[in-house]
Amino acid sequence: MIIVIDTNILVGACMGSHSATEVIASCLRKNHQPIIGTTLFSEYVDVIGREELFDRCRLDSAERNALLDIFLASCRWTEIYYGWRPNLRDEGDNHLIELAVAGHAECIVSRNIKDLVTGELLFPRIAILTPEQFLQRG
Q1: The 3-state secondary structure of 63-97, one letter per residue
Q2: What is the DSSP letter of 61?
Q3: Does the pLDDT at position 34 exceed 70?
Q4: How far is residue 35's CA from residue 135's CA, in Å, rounded to a whole number?
Q5: What is the largest CA-CA distance in the chain?
Q6: What does the buried/exposed string (b/e) look like for 86-121 if buried means 16 or more CB atoms within 10 Å of the residue's CB?
Q7: Least C-beta-crowded within 10 Å: which of 61, 95, 103, 129?
Q8: In this structure, are strands 127-129 and 2-5 parallel, antiparallel, or unpaired?
Q9: Residue 112 pLDDT grade (very low, low, confident, very high; cuts 50, 70, 90)
């Protein structure tokens, strides 16, 4: 299954969230194909580098960056050639929908469900799932 992994799932895996860790692990085991584009890549790098966010993290900076590198190696680079705007209330989330459309993803895995499902444009073939919902689907 082709999927988009929101940044909050990668952060959750670093922080020890079981369900987020299992989502990332399923990608590393090649059970699913995560896709990534320019904006999501930049967001991953920015957020993983925020030391204040990881005060209580089980991983130090080097370990977080190693996890990011390993995860990125499992991702398929996807170019976005068309912007679907206006769409979501939070402009910062539109890139996830655009990446999913461009990469033919079946779902976006995120903890930010309420903002992702309130778009003006509907993409019924793209499921928006929490990590727990994603894991239940297998």
Answers
A1: HHHHHHHHHHHHCEECCCCCCCCCCCCCHHHHHHH
A2: H
A3: yes
A4: 18
A5: 40
A6: ebbeeeebbbbbbbbbbbebbbbbbbbeeebeebee
A7: 61
A8: unpaired
A9: confident
Percent of the chain past pLDDT 90, that is, above it, reads 72
- pLDDT single digits (tens) 50-69: 999 999 898 999 999 999 99
Of 116, 112, 104, give the one whose Cα is nearest residue 131. Answer: 112
Q: Which amino acid, one-letter code, is at 111?
A: R
Please indicate, yes or no, whether the overall pTM of this predicted structure exceeds 0.85. yes
Residue type, 70: I
For 108, the enclosing helix (H) or strand (E) is strand 107-109
As given in the structure block, the two tokens for residue 83 are 């912007």
Three-state DSSP class for residue 11: helix
Q: Which domains does the chain have, with CATH numbers?
A: 2-137 (3.40.50.1010)
Tabulate helix, strand, coil % of the chain (nearest 5): 50, 10, 35
For the stretch 17-32, pLDDT in tens is: 999 999 999 999 999 9
**Can you give the length of the chain in residues?**
138
